[in-house]
Amino acid sequence: MKLGRPRLHFRLTDSTNRWARELARAGAPHGTLVTADEQTAGRGRQGRSWTAPPGSAVLMSLIVREPSEILPLAAAVAVCDACEPLPCRIKWPNDVWIDGRKLAGILVEGRPQEGWAVLGVGLNVASAPAGLPATHLREHDPDATVADTLWRLVTALDRRLAAPSGEILAEWGARDALVGERVRWDGGAGAAAGIDQTGALLVDTGEGRVALHAGEVHLLRLR
Q1: Is residue 176 a contact partner of residue 90, using CB atoms and an 8 Å limit?
Q2: For position 204, what pLDDT does the model report?
Q3: Angstrom distance (rounded) from CA 101 to CA 145
Q4: Which residues does residue 124 pair with via DSSP β-bridges, in sequence order?
Q5: What 3-state DSSP class applies to 167?
Q6: Can you give the pLDDT at residue 74?
Q7: Tens digit of each residue's pLDDT (9 = 90 or more) over 162-188
Q8: Residue 216 and residue 52: Cα distance in Å, rounded?
Q9: What is the rounded CA–CA span in Å between residue 183 and residue 190?
Q10: DSSP assignment string, 123-147
Q11: DSSP letter string over 100-114?
Q12: At residue 122, what are phi and psi to the nearest 5 degrees?
Protein backbone atom coordinates (compact mmCIF):
# COMPACT_ATOMS: atom_id res chain seq x y z
CA MET A 1 0.00 0.00 0.00
CA LYS A 2 1.43 3.39 -1.03
CA LEU A 3 -0.67 5.58 1.25
CA GLY A 4 -0.50 6.03 5.01
CA ARG A 5 3.27 6.20 5.48
CA PRO A 6 4.77 8.14 7.08
CA ARG A 7 2.03 8.72 9.65
CA LEU A 8 1.80 11.43 12.30
CA HIS A 9 -0.76 10.77 15.04
CA PHE A 10 -2.02 13.11 17.76
CA ARG A 11 -4.08 12.35 20.83
CA LEU A 12 -5.26 15.98 20.66
CA THR A 13 -4.65 18.64 18.01
CA ASP A 14 -6.34 21.64 16.50
CA SER A 15 -6.69 20.35 12.93
CA THR A 16 -5.17 17.45 11.03
CA ASN A 17 -5.61 19.42 7.81
CA ARG A 18 -3.51 22.27 9.19
CA TRP A 19 -0.68 19.90 10.08
CA ALA A 20 -0.90 18.17 6.72
CA ARG A 21 -0.73 21.52 4.88
CA GLU A 22 2.41 22.47 6.80
CA LEU A 23 3.99 19.10 6.08
CA ALA A 24 3.11 19.36 2.39
CA ARG A 25 4.72 22.81 2.15
CA ALA A 26 7.82 21.36 3.83
CA GLY A 27 8.09 18.62 1.20
CA ALA A 28 6.45 15.61 2.90
CA PRO A 29 5.91 12.81 0.39
CA HIS A 30 2.74 11.66 -1.31
CA GLY A 31 0.73 9.45 1.01
CA THR A 32 1.78 11.10 4.28
CA LEU A 33 -1.05 10.63 6.78
CA VAL A 34 -2.02 12.80 9.75
CA THR A 35 -4.56 11.41 12.24
CA ALA A 36 -5.95 12.42 15.61
CA ASP A 37 -8.10 11.05 18.40
CA GLU A 38 -9.58 14.51 18.92
CA GLN A 39 -9.58 17.90 17.18
CA THR A 40 -10.34 21.30 18.66
CA ALA A 41 -10.64 23.18 15.35
CA GLY A 42 -11.72 20.62 12.78
CA ARG A 43 -13.44 22.15 9.77
CA GLY A 44 -15.69 21.17 6.94
CA ARG A 45 -16.55 23.14 3.82
CA GLN A 46 -17.38 26.84 4.05
CA GLY A 47 -15.76 27.06 7.49
CA ARG A 48 -18.23 24.77 9.25
CA SER A 49 -16.87 23.07 12.36
CA TRP A 50 -16.43 19.30 12.66
CA THR A 51 -16.57 18.01 16.22
CA ALA A 52 -16.47 14.51 17.70
CA PRO A 53 -15.84 13.08 21.20
CA PRO A 54 -12.29 11.75 21.72
CA GLY A 55 -11.67 8.44 19.99
CA SER A 56 -15.10 8.29 18.37
CA ALA A 57 -14.33 9.13 14.73
CA VAL A 58 -11.81 8.75 11.96
CA LEU A 59 -10.11 12.15 11.80
CA MET A 60 -7.50 12.08 9.05
CA SER A 61 -5.71 14.18 6.47
CA LEU A 62 -3.72 12.76 3.58
CA ILE A 63 -1.12 14.53 1.45
CA VAL A 64 -1.74 13.90 -2.26
CA ARG A 65 0.92 14.90 -4.76
CA GLU A 66 -0.19 15.77 -8.33
CA PRO A 67 -3.88 15.47 -7.40
CA SER A 68 -6.56 14.78 -9.98
CA GLU A 69 -9.32 17.35 -10.43
CA ILE A 70 -11.77 14.66 -9.36
CA LEU A 71 -9.94 13.93 -6.09
CA PRO A 72 -13.01 14.81 -3.97
CA LEU A 73 -15.15 12.40 -6.01
CA ALA A 74 -12.65 9.57 -5.67
CA ALA A 75 -12.43 10.21 -1.94
CA ALA A 76 -16.20 10.01 -1.51
CA VAL A 77 -16.31 6.69 -3.39
CA ALA A 78 -13.48 5.39 -1.18
CA VAL A 79 -15.42 6.32 1.97
CA CYS A 80 -18.36 4.31 0.67
CA ASP A 81 -16.02 1.39 -0.07
CA ALA A 82 -14.66 1.50 3.47
CA CYS A 83 -18.16 1.26 4.93
CA GLU A 84 -19.41 -1.63 2.80
CA PRO A 85 -21.80 -3.40 2.94
CA LEU A 86 -23.70 -0.43 4.41
CA PRO A 87 -25.87 1.41 1.85
CA CYS A 88 -23.88 4.66 1.63
CA ARG A 89 -24.92 7.45 -0.71
CA ILE A 90 -23.04 10.61 -1.68
CA LYS A 91 -24.59 14.06 -1.26
CA TRP A 92 -22.86 16.46 -3.63
CA PRO A 93 -20.30 17.79 -3.20
CA ASN A 94 -18.66 16.24 -0.15
CA ASP A 95 -20.92 14.35 2.27
CA VAL A 96 -21.55 10.62 2.65
CA TRP A 97 -24.96 9.60 3.94
CA ILE A 98 -26.73 6.54 5.22
CA ASP A 99 -30.52 6.73 5.09
CA GLY A 100 -30.48 10.50 4.60
CA ARG A 101 -28.21 11.19 7.58
CA LYS A 102 -24.62 12.38 7.42
CA LEU A 103 -21.94 9.79 8.15
CA ALA A 104 -18.81 11.51 6.81
CA GLY A 105 -17.55 14.76 5.37
CA ILE A 106 -14.65 15.49 3.02
CA LEU A 107 -12.57 18.66 2.74
CA VAL A 108 -9.91 19.10 0.05
CA GLU A 109 -7.46 21.99 0.38
CA GLY A 110 -4.20 22.66 -1.38
CA ARG A 111 -2.01 24.47 -3.85
CA PRO A 112 -2.59 23.04 -7.34
CA GLN A 113 0.11 25.34 -8.69
CA GLU A 114 2.58 23.62 -6.35
CA GLY A 115 1.31 20.15 -7.21
CA TRP A 116 -0.22 19.07 -3.90
CA ALA A 117 -3.50 18.81 -2.05
CA VAL A 118 -4.59 17.77 1.42
CA LEU A 119 -7.53 15.40 1.63
CA GLY A 120 -9.33 15.63 4.96
CA VAL A 121 -11.95 13.10 6.05
CA GLY A 122 -14.09 13.02 9.17
CA LEU A 123 -16.08 9.80 9.56
CA ASN A 124 -18.37 9.11 12.53
CA VAL A 125 -17.67 5.68 13.99
CA ALA A 126 -18.93 5.55 17.58
CA SER A 127 -21.10 8.66 17.87
CA ALA A 128 -22.74 11.43 15.86
CA PRO A 129 -23.24 15.13 16.62
CA ALA A 130 -26.41 15.77 18.62
CA GLY A 131 -29.15 17.87 17.09
CA LEU A 132 -28.17 17.12 13.50
CA PRO A 133 -29.41 14.61 10.91
CA ALA A 134 -26.29 12.50 11.41
CA THR A 135 -25.42 8.86 12.00
CA HIS A 136 -22.42 6.72 12.90
CA LEU A 137 -21.12 3.29 11.94
CA ARG A 138 -21.92 1.56 15.23
CA GLU A 139 -25.56 2.40 14.77
CA HIS A 140 -25.45 0.00 11.83
CA ASP A 141 -22.49 -2.24 12.78
CA PRO A 142 -21.92 -2.61 16.55
CA ASP A 143 -18.45 -4.07 15.95
CA ALA A 144 -17.08 -1.07 14.02
CA THR A 145 -13.88 0.45 15.40
CA VAL A 146 -11.96 3.59 14.54
CA ALA A 147 -8.72 1.70 13.87
CA ASP A 148 -10.30 -0.82 11.52
CA THR A 149 -12.30 1.85 9.70
CA LEU A 150 -9.18 3.97 9.19
CA TRP A 151 -7.31 0.99 7.73
CA ARG A 152 -10.23 0.16 5.42
CA LEU A 153 -10.44 3.79 4.29
CA VAL A 154 -6.72 4.17 3.54
CA THR A 155 -6.81 0.88 1.63
CA ALA A 156 -9.81 2.07 -0.39
CA LEU A 157 -8.17 5.43 -1.09
CA ASP A 158 -5.04 3.67 -2.29
CA ARG A 159 -7.15 1.91 -4.91
CA ARG A 160 -9.55 4.69 -5.86
CA LEU A 161 -7.01 7.51 -6.22
CA ALA A 162 -5.23 5.42 -8.86
CA ALA A 163 -8.40 4.45 -10.73
CA PRO A 164 -9.34 5.88 -14.16
CA SER A 165 -11.59 8.93 -14.04
CA GLY A 166 -14.34 7.14 -15.97
CA GLU A 167 -14.50 4.44 -13.30
CA ILE A 168 -14.74 7.02 -10.50
CA LEU A 169 -17.46 9.00 -12.25
CA ALA A 170 -19.50 5.84 -12.81
CA GLU A 171 -19.09 4.66 -9.21
CA TRP A 172 -19.93 8.11 -7.88
CA GLY A 173 -23.02 8.31 -10.09
CA ALA A 174 -24.25 4.95 -8.83
CA ARG A 175 -24.24 6.39 -5.29
CA ASP A 176 -25.61 9.85 -6.10
CA ALA A 177 -28.06 10.85 -3.35
CA LEU A 178 -29.36 13.97 -5.11
CA VAL A 179 -30.20 12.79 -8.62
CA GLY A 180 -33.84 13.60 -9.34
CA GLU A 181 -34.23 15.65 -6.14
CA ARG A 182 -35.36 19.25 -6.10
CA VAL A 183 -32.55 21.53 -4.97
CA ARG A 184 -32.14 25.25 -4.45
CA TRP A 185 -29.08 27.46 -4.37
CA ASP A 186 -28.43 31.15 -4.23
CA GLY A 187 -29.94 32.32 -7.50
CA GLY A 188 -31.93 29.37 -8.73
CA ALA A 189 -33.67 26.04 -8.29
CA GLY A 190 -34.21 22.85 -10.22
CA ALA A 191 -33.86 19.08 -10.27
CA ALA A 192 -30.43 17.54 -9.72
CA ALA A 193 -29.34 15.58 -12.80
CA GLY A 194 -26.00 14.05 -11.79
CA ILE A 195 -22.51 15.44 -12.36
CA ASP A 196 -20.36 16.25 -15.37
CA GLN A 197 -16.81 15.07 -16.15
CA THR A 198 -15.29 17.65 -13.79
CA GLY A 199 -17.60 16.88 -10.87
CA ALA A 200 -19.84 19.92 -11.30
CA LEU A 201 -23.45 19.39 -10.27
CA LEU A 202 -25.88 19.38 -13.19
CA VAL A 203 -29.30 20.87 -12.51
CA ASP A 204 -32.29 20.96 -14.81
CA THR A 205 -34.16 24.24 -14.42
CA GLY A 206 -37.21 25.44 -16.26
CA GLU A 207 -34.89 27.21 -18.69
CA GLY A 208 -32.37 24.45 -19.38
CA ARG A 209 -29.48 22.63 -17.71
CA VAL A 210 -26.80 24.41 -15.70
CA ALA A 211 -23.52 23.19 -14.20
CA LEU A 212 -22.78 24.36 -10.66
CA HIS A 213 -19.44 24.28 -8.87
CA ALA A 214 -18.86 23.75 -5.17
CA GLY A 215 -17.48 27.23 -4.60
CA GLU A 216 -20.65 28.94 -5.76
CA VAL A 217 -23.37 26.61 -4.49
CA HIS A 218 -25.25 26.53 -1.21
CA LEU A 219 -27.91 23.84 -1.13
CA LEU A 220 -30.76 25.28 0.88
CA ARG A 221 -33.44 22.61 0.89
CA LEU A 222 -34.10 19.10 -0.29
CA ARG A 223 -37.37 17.29 -0.63
Answers
A1: yes
A2: 94
A3: 20
A4: 57
A5: helix
A6: 96
A7: 999 999 999 999 999 999 988 888 778
A8: 28
A9: 6
A10: EESS---TTSSB--GGGT-TT--HH
A11: TEEEEEEEEEEEGGG
A12: -120, 125
Per DSSP, helices labelled H in 36-183 are 71-82, 146-160, 165-174
Q: Is residue 16 helix, strand or coil?
A: helix
* Rounded Cα distance, 84 and 169, in Å: 19
SS3 state of residue 46: helix
Residue type, 215: G
Q: What is the pTM of this model?
A: 0.90
- DSSP annotation of 171 reads H
d(CA 11, CA 85): 30
The Cα–Cα gap between 58 and 121 comes to: 7
The string of pLDDT tens digits covering residues 50-67 is 667 889 999 999 999 999
